[in-house]
Task: structure prediction
Amino acid sequence: MYRASVLLLMLILPAASIYAGHSYLQSSAPLMELVGKWFVFWSAGVRLLLAGLSEFFRPRFTSEGIFGMESDDPLPFVQELGAANFATGFVGVASLAKPSFVLPVAIRNFLWHCGHPASAEWRQNGERKYRDDQRSVRISGPCHLRRIGSVGLANIRTVTRRSSKPAQPVSS
Result:
């Protein structure tokens, strides 16, 4: 279930939304703007909103099921992580109504996934074996997307800069 939800929220739903916006709705927005909008909404918004709620109300699932920690010591930390994920997810979902939120949420997500200690450990020790697939998806999945994310961030920044220029007055 966990693996399916990560795949759905980080790949399938963003790709389907981009395709629908570009092909069916004939959106006049540049393709990279749609990519930023929908990846932030689904991957950072909805996914982190749901993860935050789960981590806050069910911290044992995260500490035992994903990180493999059996003691109760990390539970308050996991709840704090849940509150942070919920807050980021809320802003990510709100980016649909307030497009200026897209870039800050994308940067936050990029920095979190690629500067995350577990990600660094995975990159340094690629052959490390984890207890189950959930931890592998949680730790390695976002790192494989970091190159795509950096290209996307550069393009989103360009599109944002281009679209945020003030209108020039027309002289008669």
Notes: Confidence is low (pLDDT under 50) at residues 119-152, 154-164.
